[in-house]
Amino acid sequence: MLAPLVLVLVLVACRARGVAPTARDRPPEPAATGDLVVENHSGQTVFRLQALREGEGEWSEDLLASDEVLGEGARRRWPVACGRYRVRAELADGRAVELRAERDLGPDEEVVLRLPSAEASRRGTLTLVNATGYTIARVQFSPTNSMRWGEDRLGPKEVLAPGRSRSWQIPAGRYNVRVYFQDRTVLEARRPIEVTVGERCLYRLER
User: For 117-174, how does the pLDDT look when each residue is reduced to its tens digit (9 = 90+)?
Assistant: First the structure.
């Protein structure tokens, strides 16, 4: 009778000490999420909206409800898993417009994708690769037919570390590029960069 008694005492002791559950017993932690926001400035009604996270092979189901549309000037948000997203919208005239986020969506953050007007849709993508070995603190573009430099293209606390890249959708045309490094050195592109409609222009900046 001694063995059963010892077993009971061991079980009681384990409960009293509050033995922690193993990793296998714990429920999986929920995936981190952020908000994907779409604004409609296309001048048309959006009847269908789909999202695709980078690394996944298929577009999502329609983000809009069966009886829902996204009117001109409307704004809608969806909680989604973190990552970088593309959005595809079907407009009233039958066209499909595709947008790609310029940065990853982090936990509790939001990424806003704006459907442009027909005129604004004449854009291309300029991707800047920092191949200098130095951190870039500020990026400016200037059309070759302008004497002024535009606003900083990086966010308020954003930098472009060595080896990293950043993309912007901008109106098609020829641009000069100027960057400011954290050591306050300024560097301009050696030649104008051509951005064409619907295309991606890759510019590798070296110092």
Answer: 776 667 789 999 999 999 999 999 999 999 999 999 998 889 999 999 999 988 889 9
What helix, strand, coil percent values describe the chain, rounded to 5? Answer: 10, 45, 50
Distance CA 96, CA 107 (A): 29
Q: 134-147 burial, b if ≥16 CB within 10 A, otherwise e? A: bebbbbbbbbeeee
Going by C-alpha positions, the residue among 120, 113, 117, 121 that lies closest to residue 50 is 113
The CATH number corresponding to 123-205 among 1.20.1250.20, 3.10.450.350, 2.60.40.2890, 3.60.15.10 equals 2.60.40.2890
Number of residues that this document lists for the chain: 207
Beta bridge partners of 6: none
Decide: pTM greater than 0.85.
no
Q: List, in sequence order, the alpha helices (H) in the chain.
A: 2-17
What is 33-115's CATH number, 2.60.40.2630, 2.60.40.10, 3.40.640.10, 3.40.50.150?
2.60.40.2630
The Cβ of residue 59 has, within 10 Å, a number of other Cβ atoms equal to 13
Q: How many CA atoms lie within 13 A of 60 on its CB side?
A: 20
The answer to whether domain 33-115 and domain 123-205 are alike in fold is yes
